[in-house]
Amino acid sequence: MTVSKGKATLTDFQKTCLNIVIVIGSCLICLLLSPMRFPGIELLGVSPNWLLIWVVIWSIHYPIFDGAIAGIVLGLLQDGLTGPFPTHALSLMVVGMLTARLQRQRIIQENVVLVAFIVFGMAVVGATMMALQMSFRHILWPNSPYLNLWQIWRTHQRVALSSAILSSLWTPALYYPLHHWWKGYLKAKN
Amino acid sequence: MFALRRWWDRYATRAGIATLVIGLAWAMRQSQGAVIYEIYQVLTSPLHPGLTQAERLENAYILELQQRVIELENQNQGLRENINYADSQGKVTIAAVIGRSADNWWQQITVNKGSSDGVTEGDMATGPGGLVGRVLSVSPSTSQILLITDPTSQMGVKVSRSRALGVVRGNVDGRVVMQFFETTPDVKPGDVIVTSSYSRLFPQGVPVGRIESMDLKKSPAPEAVIQLSSPLNILEWVTIHPFEAKTDVNAPPAEIVDDKATP
């Protein structure tokens, strides 16, 4: 691409750079939103899972391998913000792979409602992965910090449902800008 | 060999980038997200309680004069109490709560004072009413406090009236449960719970809460639900007390004997 085409078109290199900036920037925004609790964001003391929304939107646009990597990376970052166990890397990796797999079967069209449904389902999957890790730890290790399994799964119900509802409601806020950018970017690339 | 070579030619860059990105994320995790919390602190600084005080003062003279004055008087009184409290406690740090847990499984808060203000890992945090938690990790200007309602938080406590000993554990659902060491502890609802000398992560004698209800027939140990004296959901300020965790497993024997001997 040359300069004569005008300033509206960017060179491939510039586009790649811009893509990197957008990816890192949007991840950072999601990370910064995680500890925040502004009014209207909490339901039964549970807040939306911003990183999960990001991973789902990313995996819709990229293949399974990339979805898994994005899940691991963001999961590790979320671990850094909270604590090492149970790890979010595993649950977000599963979410990324499942979403990318669904997209490969062309189940998701360009429909924000469907994406919100996927986020709803994936939030439940993510919470289940966390609860499973806790349950295994409770069963397999002798001095578990959790009182009993019943308690873990009762909390799982509350967390999974509230965070699924909130996350899917907040999905459009992230989906529209990111989808708009990635659609154009990937089309130009292929 | 050839297949491997071809794989390498095709995926070398992607594999390299993936390794690099995971490595970076790992480093970030090992540093407890210090970079992210630093950015968070800078970005949310206009929202921190206390900083808008000056703006509130300006508005007070223009709008709703009386109400604002009452509000300021109350705040002033609260802060004055905090300062008096701080003076009486020796070297403590008062910090504003600027964030909550970054996911729904952990019970944490983020406060706006960090290692540059003298906060270190293992310090104890109290709020109005009693114990809040302990400092889990610090970055230069923020620190993470693990609330006592978190399941990974455990501490030795005793019933103030009868000296019955037990362990208080947080719960995944945000309640706090005390498990007694004895099978027939002398307790009744309303009894005050304080940290005991068995507690290695907290100093002894800090108020925790009151007994709300109990189940003395519970196996393997009798249990009681504790009503915390500190309102963890609406905390705005916490006081951070310097404390060195006793990493020595054999806690000072003299104090333990004292605990058991006092009826």
State the domain count of chain A.
1
Radius of gyration of chain B: 23 Å
CATH topology description of the domain at 93-263 in chain B: Thrombin, subunit H
Number of strands of chain B: 12
How are the strands of the largest sheet of chain B arranged? 1-2-5-4-3-12
List SSEs of chain B in N-to-C order.
Answer: HHHHEEEEEEEEEEEEH
Structural class of chain B: alpha+beta
User: Can you give the mean pLDDT of chain B?
Assistant: 79
* Amount of helix of chain B: 25-40%
Radius of gyration of chain A: 18 Å
Shape type of chain B:
flat
Quickly list its features.
heterodimer, A: 190 residues, mainly alpha, 73% helix, elongated, disordered N terminus, B: 263 residues, alpha+beta, Thrombin, subunit H, 6-stranded antiparallel beta barrel, 6-stranded antiparallel β-barrel, flat, disordered C terminus, Cell shape-determining protein MreC (chain B), coiled coil (chain B)
List the SSEs and their pairings:
The complex is a heterodimer of chains A (190) and B (263).
Chain A: H1 12-33, H2 50-61, H3 64-81, H4 88-104, H5 112-140, H6 149-189
Helix pairs in contact in A: 1-6, 2-3, 2-4, 2-5, 2-6, 3-4, 4-5, 5-6
Chain B: H1 2-30, H2 34-44, H3 53-62, H4 65-88, E1 93-100, E2 108-111, E3 124-127, E4 130-138, E5 143-147, E6 154-159, E7 165-170, E8 176-180, E9 192-195, E10 207-215, E11 223-228, E12 237-241, H5 253-261
Antiparallel strand pairs in B: 1-2, 1-12, 2-5, 3-4, 3-12, 4-5, 6-7, 6-9, 7-8, 8-11, 9-10, 10-11
Helix pairs in contact in B: 3-4
Would you mind describing this structure in some detail?
- The complex is a heterodimer of chains A (190) and B (263).
- With 190 residues, chain A is mostly helical.
- Chain A is 73% helix and 0% strand.
- In chain A, helix 1 (12-33) runs antiparallel to helix 6, helix 2 crosses helix 5 (112-140) and helix 4 packs antiparallel against helix 5 (112-140).
- Chain A is elongated, with a radius of gyration of 18 Å.
- In chain A, 40% of the residues are buried.
- Chain B has a domain at 93-263: Rod shape-determining protein MreC, domain 1 (Thrombin, subunit H), CATH 2.40.10.
- Chain B has 5 helices and 12 strands.
- The interface between A and B is large, with 41 and 42 residues.
